[in-house]
Inverse folding.
C-alpha cells in the first residue's frame, strides 16, 4: 500500500497527465475487497469511478428507483462502509438506517457533513483526505483575493463585452503589497495562504481557537478584532457550532467599506443574508466566494455586483488533487478491509 | 524633494485612501515651474490632473481643435518637456515637430512608445517611473496565471450564468504546485513573479539576454528551450526589435496543448495571429493576456474561449501605484525645471 507521502508526491510530476485512474488490467487480481455504499456520487468518485469500482463492490443508492431511506433499509444489515462528500451528508437519520456501519470514508477534508457526535457514540470510524487539498485551496483563496482586489474577472467581462475601445480607462484596482490580511483559522490551509500572501508583501495576522507559538504572525483573540485591524479577511476555518455565522454584520462593518472578504471554507461560517446586505449597500468593499450557505444556490443579488467573484465550491478541484484523493480513498478502504491502520482517520 | 524610496513606501500605508492627489492650498505657492506638453492624457495624469496641473502649466494638445501636427508646430519653439504614456507615442514625427524638446517624461515603466534612438541622437533625456509598478504587475501576472489554471473567471461566468444547479460538477482545474513555470525576462517584474510562484510551490526557470549569477533558477539560453521545458510561460521582458514576435507558433507548440501563456509585458512580443490560431486549435492550453498587439483591439476569436482570461492593459493599474507614479512624474519634472538630477532617468 502506498503511503500518503508517496501519494502526495505524485502531483508534483508535471508529466503525469492526471487522466482518470484506470482499473489495472490484471487478470490475477483478487475479487472485490469488500462492499462500499455510495448514496450520491462524490465528485472524486465520479472522476475516478472505474478505478475505485475495480477494487470494491459499489452499492449505488443513486441508481436505485427506491427512495434513499427504503434503499438503505434494504441493505441495512450488510453495509459496513459508506463513501461520501458534502453532497451526500451522513446525518443522524442515515446513520440510524445503517446499524452495521463501521466506517465513513469522506473524499473531502472537511467533515461537517458527517454527524461526528453520533459516529463517536457508535464507534464508527471516519476518514477524510488529510491535508491533500490544502495547497490547492490556498491557491484558490489567493486567486480569489487577487481577482477581487485587482478586478480580474470584472476586467475579463469588460474586455469580452467589447467595452475597452469605448471606455479606455478601466477603474483602478487595489494594491496587494502592504495590505493587512487577516486569516481566520491558521491550520494547513490558512498557513499555506499566509506563505503566499507574505511573498506578495501583505502583512499577515490571524485568529484561531488559541494563539500559536510556532508563528510570527500577529494574533487577535477574536474575529471582530481581526476584522477591525485588516484590509482583507480570508476564511479558512472549519464549520462548527462555534463558527456558524461567526462572520456577521458587525464583523463585516468592522472590515469596512474598502475591506475584502474571501471564503474558501464553508458557506455557513458567514451569515449570507447579512453579507449580501453589506455588499449591496457598500458597507464592505468586495468578496471572493467559493462557498455558500445553500449550495448550489447563490443569492441572485450577487450576480449584479462587479466587486464580487463567485466560484462553485471548486478551490480544491484540480486534476492532481482528485487523483491523489482517489488514491487516499482507496488506501483507506483497503486498510479497513485488510484490518490495517487507517491512513487518514479523523480523530 | 522626496526620494524614490520615500515615495515608494507611501503605498505601504494601508490607511492612505489614495484619492487623487490634490493641489496644495498654499497661497504662498510659487508660480508654475514650467510648461509641460500633453498630447493625449496618460491615465496617471487623468487621475491626478489637479495635482500635476497645480505645479506646471499644462499645454493640452487634446483639447485643441487643431490636428496634432498643426498644434505641435504652433508651439514648436516653446515646448521643452512632454509628458506621455503608451497611448501617446513619441514617434520620430512628433520629435521632428518639437525641435526645442529637452525631456520626455513617461508615466510608465516601459518606453517602447518613445523613439529612443532619435532621443539619444538629439540628446533629449527620458524618464520613466522606475520599478514602481513591478510588484503590482507581478501580482497581476500571478493572478492571471492562477485564473487560467484554476478557471476562476470562467467559473465566475458559470455561477453568474446560473449553471451551477444544473451542472453540479464544474470542470477540474490544474494544480499550480509542482508546475514548471518559465519566466521570459528576469528583471524587476520577472523576479517579483518568481518570488510569488516559489511560494506556491512552482518550479521556476527563465531566459534572458544573459544568465544571471545572482539567482538559483535554471537558465535556458532561448525562449524555445524554455517553452519546451515549461508548463507555463510568463512574458515579463521589454519590447525591443529582438523580442518582437519572439513568441511564435514554434514556441507555442513547444509549450504544448496543456501549456499556459501569460503576457503582462507588451502585446507585440507575441505573434498574436499565431497565438489566436494555437488557442482556437487547442495547440496551447490557455492564456492570460493583459496586453495585445493593437490595443484596445482584442481579437474577437478570444471572446469565445473559456481557457483565456482577458485584461485591458491594467496589471499596473492600482490606486496606490498611480499615486506613486504621479509623485514620480512631478519629482522628475521639478528636478528638470530646477536643474537638479532627474529621479528616474532611462539610460
Amino acid at each position: 500500500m502506498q503511503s500518503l507521502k508517496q501519494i502526495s508526491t505524485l502531483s508534483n510530476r508535471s508529466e503525469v497527465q492526471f487522466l482518470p485512474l484506470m482499473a489495472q488490467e490484471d487478470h490475477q487480481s483478487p475479487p472485490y475487497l469488500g462492499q462500499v455504499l455510495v448514496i450520491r456520487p462524490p465528485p472524486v468518485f465520479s472522476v475516478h469511478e472505474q478505478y475505485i469500482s475495480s477494487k470494491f463492490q459499489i452499492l449505488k443508492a443513486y441508481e436505485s428507483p427506491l427512495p434513499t431511506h427504503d434503499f438503505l433499509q434494504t441493505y441495512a444489515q450488510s453495509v459496513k462502509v459508506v463513501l461520501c462528500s458534502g453532497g451526500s451528508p451522513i446525518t443522524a437519520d442515515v446513520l440510524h438506517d445503517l446499524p452495521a456501519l463501521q466506517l465513513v470514508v469522506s473524499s473531502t477534508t472537511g467533515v461537517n457533513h458527517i454527524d461526528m457526535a453520533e459516529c463517536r457514540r457508535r464507534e464508527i470510524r471516519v476518514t477524510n483526505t488529510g491535508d491533500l487539498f490544502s495547497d490547492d485551496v490556498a491557491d484558490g483563496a489567493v486567486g480569489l483575493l487577487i481577482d477581487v482586489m485587482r478586478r480580474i474577472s470584472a476586467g475579463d467581462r469588460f474586455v469580452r463585452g467589447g467595452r475597452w475601445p469605448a471606455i479606455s480607462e478601466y477603474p483602478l484596482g487595489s494594491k496587494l503589497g502592504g495590505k493587512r490580511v487577516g486569516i481566520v483559522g491558521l491550520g494547513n490551509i490558512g498557513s499555506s495562504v499566509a506563505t503566499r500572501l507574505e511573498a506578495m508583501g501583505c502583512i499577515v495576522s490571524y485568529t484561531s481557537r488559541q494563539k500559536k507559538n510556532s508563528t510570527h504572525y500577529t494574533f487577535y483573540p477574536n474575529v471582530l478584532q481581526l476584522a477591525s485591524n485588516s484590509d482583507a479577511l480570508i476564511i479558512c476555518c472549519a464549520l462548527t457550532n462555534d463558527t456558524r455565522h461567526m462572520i456577521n454584520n458587525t464583523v463585516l462593518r468592522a472590515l469596512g467599506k474598502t475591506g475584502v472578504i474571501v471564503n474558501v471554507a464553508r458557506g455557513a461560517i458567514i451569515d449570507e443574508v447579512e453579507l449580501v446586505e453589506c455588499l449591496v449597500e457598500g458597507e464592505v468593499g468586495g468578496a471572493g466566494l467559493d462557498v455558500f450557505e445553500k449550495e448550489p444556490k447563490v443569492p441572485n443579488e450577487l450576480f449584479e455586483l462587479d466587486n464580487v467573484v463567485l466560484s462553485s465550491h471548486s478551490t480544491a478541484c484540480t486534476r492532481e488533487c482528485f487523483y491523489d484523493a482517489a488514491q487516499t480513498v482507496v488506501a483507506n478502504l483497503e486498510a479497513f478491509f485488510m484490518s490495517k491502520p487507517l491512513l487518514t482517520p479523523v480523530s
Q: What stands out?
A: DSSP finds 13 helices and twelve strands in chain A. Residues 4-132+318-337 of chain A form a domain with the Rossmann fold fold (CATH 3.40.50.720).
